[in-house]
Design a protein that fits this description.
- The protein has 113 residues and is mainly α.
- It is 64% helix and 8% strand.
- It has five helices and three strands, in the order ββααβααα.
- The protein has a three-stranded mixed beta sheet with strand order 2-1-3.
C-alpha cells in the first residue's frame, strides 16, 4: 500500500507508537460482527468496514487509536446497528448501563428514520 492510502503509525492510549495494522482492525470488527449472518456476509462486512475506515484516515502518517475507533464507529453505525453496539461496548468504555442504553436508544431511533 502507498503511504497516501493508509495511516502508517498509530499512537496508542499509553503513548506508544506502533505500525498501523489493518489485520488488527479487521479482527476487532470481526469479533463484533460474529454471528451476524453467513461467514461470507460477515467477511464482506469486515472487509467493507475496514476499507472505509482506511479510506477515511488516508493520507495521515500518524493517527491515534481513538481516531481509528471513532471512524470505525461511524462506519459500523451505517452498516449494522448491532455490530456498532458490540464494537462501541468495547471501545467507548461506558461508565454505566445507562450510558450504554442512551447509545442504544440513539441507534434505534436513527434507524427508524
Amino acid at each position: 500500500m502507498q503511504p497516501e492510502s493508509t495511516p502508517w503509525a498509530v499512537t496508542k492510549l499509553a503513548g506508544r507508537v506502533e505500525p498501523f495494522q489493518a489485520a488488527k482492525l479487521s479482527r476487532s470488527i470481526g469479533i463484533a460482527a460474529e454471528g451476524r449472518g453467513t461467514e461470507e456476509r460477515v467477511r464482506s462486512l469486515v472487509l467493507h468496514a475496514t476499507t472505509q475506515v482506511q479510506e477515511a484516515l488516508r493520507g495521515q502518517a500518524l493517527v491515534t487509536s481513538q481516531q481509528i475507533a471513532a471512524e470505525t464507529l461511524n462506519v459500523l453505525r451505517s452498516l449494522d446497528s448491532l455490530v456498532y453496539l458490540r464494537y462501541a461496548s468495547a471501545v467507548k468504555r461506558y461508565r454505566s448501563v445507562d450510558d450504554f442504553w442512551l447509545d442504544a436508544w440513539g441507534v434505534m431511533f436513527s434507524d427508524q428514520r
